[in-house]
Amino acid sequence: MSTLFGSELSSAVINTGIATVILIVAMSLLSWFFPWLQKKIQSLPHSQLPALKIHNFEIITAQSLTAGICSLLKALRLVINVLGLYFYFSLVLGFFPETQHISDNMLHYILDPLKEVLKTIVDYIPKAIYVIVICLVMRYILKVIRLFFLRIEAGYLKLEGFHAEWAQPTYNLVRILVFAFTLIIIFPHLPGSSSPAFQGVSVFLGLLISLGSSSAISNMVAGLVITYMRPFQVGDRVKLSTTVGDVVEKNLLVTRIRTIKNVDVTIPNSNVLNSHIINYSAVADTKGLILNPRITIGYDVNWRKVHELLLGAAARTEGVLKDPKPFILQTALDNSYVEYELNAYTRLANNFDDVYSELYKNIQDLFNEAQVEIMSPTYHALRDGEGMHIPSEYKS
């Protein structure tokens, strides 16, 4: 019996020595192979290891991809070393009869989960094929829908009552609906979808998103309403609340206005929808935008003379249209003056401030040349009734 035991022990020791030599050699090879492979990858030119892109958007640069592969190799080397040591100790313990049961348990700790994972993967293959087929079908459906809306946007396909600028936002809405429909179909076939933990996490994340994005969702809804209302287009001169400027961008969340001082103002779409929207450019190209400067003149000046001077100022102003003809309205008969309103047409909606300024200059010049005193804004002064408040160079 002692001879048999000694024979088994010597055999176990010899096997342990062989296993140890194999482990040392394997570890040495790994210690040489992985650093060599990392150096090879790091020395590759960027043309052989291109960046990951989606269309023109660069997701991962070539440098980041190289660093990521090297980090992955380090992690893989660590995992292989740990597994090698684990199997080495399991194998060595199996050589000795007294510790063979420990070796069996150690192997079961690794092999049983691997068998379970492999069985789960094999069982999931039919469902995975179903999910892949559904995703492919929906992908090609989206391509057809996108082509349809691109034709509308380009003007090749026209639908009555459907404007071309609605094509892109409508496609985005349809795409979201298709994605939601696809998710509803494939959700029961996703791994772990029936797990209570998975369902609980899904509800929790949905609650977080709904509570945290309430203002964003209201802006998105307002952005959709504004899109289909069509109150303005990019490039229009508008007034939103107290902000006047040109629309430089509009999206689902915000509208950006550039004022005449070159200041960009970002306004949430919910605020835009809740305020009055004044569009100066809407009909400026077709019917013209009416400029309406007002002045007040004393009762001692014949109204026909005032009309003549105002129309002359409009005729002098660059940017004011000759047709339609300017016209004048007398809007008030006050205690000490008459209020006149000049209405002149222009197509320069995005530069109406400049036209206004030029028009005011010409009104001042013509009235001073005719020695007619403009009484607006009203001011108080002690006068003897003889003096006239116009620049001295115009007095005769």
From TrEMBL:
Transmembrane segments: 12-34, 78-96, 128-149, 170-190, 202-229
Keyword annotations: Cell membrane, Membrane, Transmembrane, Transmembrane helix
Keyword Transmembrane helix annotated: yes
Mechanosensitive ion channel MscS C-terminal domain span: 295-374
Gene3D superfamilies: 1.10.287.1260, 2.30.30.60, 3.30.70.100
One of the record's GO molecular function terms: mechanosensitive monoatomic ion channel activity
PANTHER family: SLL0590 PROTEIN, SMALL-CONDUCTANCE MECHANOSENSITIVE CHANNEL
Name listed for the protein in its UniProt record: Putative mechano-sensitive ion channel
Native source species: Bdellovibrio bacteriovorus (strain ATCC 15356 / DSM 50701 / NCIMB 9529 / HD100)
Lineage: Bacteria, Pseudomonadati, Bdellovibrionota, Bdellovibrionia, Bdellovibrionales
